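Notes, Module 5: Reading structure tokens.

Key idea: the token line is not a picture. It is a compressed description, and you learn to read it the same way you learned to read a sequence, by spotting repeated patterns. We will look at two proteins. The first is printed below with its tokens.
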Amino acid sequence: EVQLAESGGGSVQAGGSLRLSCAASGYGARTRCMGWFYAQAPGAEREGVATIDSDGHTRYADSVEGRFTISKDNGENILYLQMDALKPEDTGLYYCAAGCLDYRHFQSIDFPDWGEGTQVTVSS
């Protein structure tokens, strides 16, 4: 099992930037493949935003391609999501997830480990 703790959420105006962080602890092998997911509200369906593996391969949702950047500090086991050019429709809960077998897997069911989420609010 991996414990995940997100930070960095907050409120920002449209066009602004935020950087999310996710500190991972526990079984290291499960942090080789990690990702960020988005949900409009607690309990809502979680949609893939970006994934990354320890070799640096990444995948992005079409809606964030070119605006968001996922990165990972393998030594410290910290996952990041740099969010630029934010839009009001990016508002929601962002979850850190771990344990995927392949960075191309983009469904929430592919990730056994989850953080509690951090709120991002973008005002127009």
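Here is the second protein, with the sequence above and the tokens below, as before.
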Amino acid sequence: QVQLVESGGASVQPGGSLRLSCAASHLTVGNNCMSWFRQPPGKEREGVAAISRNGISYYADSVKGRFTISRDNAESTVYLQMSSLKPEDTAVYFCAAATLCGGGVPSPAEMVAWGQGTQVTVSS
């Protein structure tokens, strides 16, 4: 059974940085489109970043230049490096897997596996 486990969420001040990790079991991260989503309080889940099978990265406009997605195939782990964090980045962050990225960050409906989420709070 595929399992995705996120970690690294925390409370940080605006302008700070965090790195989220997503450890995958029974799934080869290099053979899937691995994505990060977030769900702010009271809002719908939205795509943040994705990395395709061949290593191409995609980002939502709201995080371009601030967030970086990467993966370690040997460790079966996907990362989301977040910098210059803003209060509007506050959300529960989810790791998810899909077969293909389709040229961008997939929609939540396309994902076939999800992690349980990790809370990121950006506040002074």
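Summary for the second protein:
- The mean pLDDT is 96.
- The CA atoms of residues 99 and 111 lie 8 Å apart.
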